[in-house]
Amino acid sequence: MDLGIAGKRAAVAASTSGLGFAAAQALAAEGVQVAICGRQRERVEKAAAAIGGEVVPIEADVSTPEGATGFVDEAQRALGQVDILVVNVPGTPAGTFGSTALEAYGPALQNHVLSAVGMCKAAVPGMQSRGWGRVVAITSVGVRQPFPDLILSNTGRSGLTAFLKTLALEVAPDGVTVNTVQPGYHRTERLESWAGERLADLAADVPANAVGEPADFGAVVAFLCSRSAGYLTGAAVPVDGGLYGGLQ
């Protein structure tokens, strides 16, 4: 299926591995010029080489608003413009209400919410002026069904989801769509290091009876960036093998 986005230009944040890498790889496969980023130059260049094609490696830390905005600004200089923005940020430490200090919430909200706002502030006005754009944010199924030991992630990503839903309503008349994608358990380095020997147990909890593959997740992100998805905005799409059991 031709997604109709060949020649478009994308900035994909936190994309040296995991779901960010999968999203960048899927977009590049559709002929999109992609800028990726990570904190370590060597890892960014290695990821760009693995993707191949017209990939621009940028060293940036998107866990802060300054770093996130700087990444998009540099991507726009390198690519000429950014038509597609994939919002993705590093994870926050695990913890419960009882084990998480009040002081930890500020950095978590900066990481999950303010950094994303900074990226959108840098990229979306240009999309509006050109009459076309796509914003897709990678959040978590924990927004719908909170994970007990990930209180910082649950809180921050929920705030981000509210911001992006509000943004979607504002920029829809300008031809810009804004959606979030909510992964469940996917076979990434982060999940494998966290779950360890419990990975099979996690798969058993999923109705699909499997842990998701990053490439399949990346394909969903690419579709949301397509011309065919132009009437889909303000949506929060769970990609979790049926893990979330609610009606909405």
UniProtKB/TrEMBL annotation:
**Keywords carried by this UniProt record:** Signal
The protein's name in its UniProt record: 3-oxoacyl-[acyl-carrier protein] reductase
Q: Pfam families from the entry? A: adh_short_C2
- Family membership noted in the UniProt record: Belongs to the short-chain dehydrogenases/reductases (SDR) family.
Q: Which InterPro entries match?
A: NAD(P)-bd_dom_sf, SDR, SDR_fam
Q: Which residues form the signal peptide?
A: 1-28
